[in-house]
Amino acid sequence: MTSAIISSATTQNTISAAHLLVVEDDTTIRETVKEALSAEGFEVSACGDGSEALTMLTGPQADSIDALVLDLMLPGLGGLDLCRELRKLNNTTPILVISARDSETDRVLGLEVGADDYLVKPFGLRELVARCRALLRRSQRINPKPTDRDDVIEHANLCLYSQECRVTRDDKDLSLAPKEYKILELLMRNPRRVWSRDQLLEQIWGIDFVGDTKTVDVHIRWLREKIEAIPSSPDHIRTVRGFGYRFG
């Protein structure tokens, strides 16, 4: 497994120390990744199984962990199950999956269960560091505070309360993940405007996003399942073939 890691030169600029948790059962890969990320200015913790990671991410030190670098093939609680459990608990820690599973189905599944990015083994440490930086920049980006007159956006049976980051459907609260909420707010603030996948990635994930545009389709599908009466025949978020998506 050591061949899954390719050494890289130190990048020019280090970011302010962020705390990363590396979850990898292969000792050589775990220590190599930990050392490489530490050399770039990150504070790095590491463990070898999903159960220990879940304890760390739900315990007293959870708030200090800024991002998770997660292998899928773990003993006991696997990486996919860990992702599901964290998102079920509304834990929004950014997750970068590292895995030898390289099929499109595996990548989409990883995104569907809550990962924010997916990196296939073997990978170079330079790319790993770049993706960690991009993930942290996206998660730390501060959105402008809405004005009072923009606080509530209504459309049909949906109501979005922007200052509360809350959405209701038929007066019942919806449980939306942060990215789902941001996509919906952007679409509702710009009704009937068509947004391409690249435009949505830039607006929601940031211009430094290095993942697959399919992540947009995954999040749109999740949104439709929560806000549409019939997700396969949506009334709110519509597909404009060859262009992208629009609201209304």
Structure description:
The chain is elongated. The chain has helices at 27-39, 50-58, 79-88, 104-112, 125-140, 178-189, 197-205, 214-227; strands at 5-6, 19-23, 43-47, 67-71, 95-99, 117-120, 123-124, 152-155, 158-161, 166-169, 172-173, 237-240, 244-247. It is α/β, with parallel strands linked by helices and 248 residues long. Residues 1-16 and 142-149 have low confidence and may be disordered. It contains eight helices and 13 strands. A five-stranded parallel β-sheet has the order 3-2-4-5-6, sandwiched between helices. Helix 6 (178-189) crosses helix 8. Strand 5 (95-99), helix 4 (104-112) and strand 6 form a beta-alpha-beta unit. It folds into two domains: 2-140, Response regulator (Rossmann fold, 3-Layer(aba) Sandwich), CATH 3.40.50; 148-247, Orthogonal Bundle (Arc Repressor Mutant, subunit A).
Give the tags.
8 helices; elongated; about 250 residues; 2 domains; alpha/beta; Rossmann fold; Arc Repressor Mutant, subunit A
Helix percentage: 25-40%
Unreliable stretches covering 5 or more consecutive residues: 1-16, 142-149
Radius of gyration over C-alpha positions, nearest whole angstrom: 19 Å
What is the strand content? 15-25%
Structural class: alpha/beta
Indicate the CATH architecture of the largest domain: 3-Layer(aba) Sandwich
Strand order of the largest sheet: 3-2-4-5-6
Outline the biggest β-sheet: 5 strands, parallel
- Please write the string of helix (H) and strand (E) elements: EEHEHEHEHEEHEEEEHHHEE
Q: Give the overall shape, derived from the CA principal axes.
A: elongated
Q: Got a strand count?
A: 13
- What do we call the CATH topology of the largest domain? Rossmann fold
Q: Give the CATH H-level superfamily of the largest domain.
A: Response regulator
Average pLDDT metric: 86
Distance separating the two termini: 50 Å
Number of alpha- plus pi-helical segments: 8
Question: In CATH, what is the class of the largest domain?
Answer: Alpha Beta
- Count of the separate structural domains: 2
